[in-house]
Design goal:
The chain is mainly alpha-helical. The protein has helices at residues 3-24, 36-53, 56-69, 72-89.
Length: 90
């Protein structure tokens, strides 16, 4: 079988299994799935914060403000402000 076809079939199976899994587990065990979007988002964003700004302090400020206030706009403004202040000081 061609490797491209095997790759497509493997990706299709992985996509199908992740979408039908919640239907086969009990509702009590379904609670952990509500944390999946936040964990995937943070695993995608955190490396970019470190690599793009070369300033981990601004990323920590954003994380702290977002964790404390749960407001994305406030976290965004705090991060931009922290990055501006740190770049003007250093």
């Amino acid at each position: 079988m061609d490797w491209k076809l095997m790759l497509i079939l493997g990706m299709a199976a992985a996509t199908y299994l992740t979408r039908v899994t919640p239907f086969f587990i009990r509702i009590r065990e379904y609670r952990f799935l509500k944390y999946v979007p936040a964990s995937v988002f943070s695993s995608l964003v955190f490396p970019d914060i470190v690599r793009s700004t070369d300033n981990l302090i601004a990323g920590i400020v954003v994380f702290a403000v977002a964790w404390k206030n749960r407001d994305l706009m406030l976290a965004f403004l705090a991060g931009i402000s922290a990055l501006y202040i740190l770049r003007s000081v250093f």
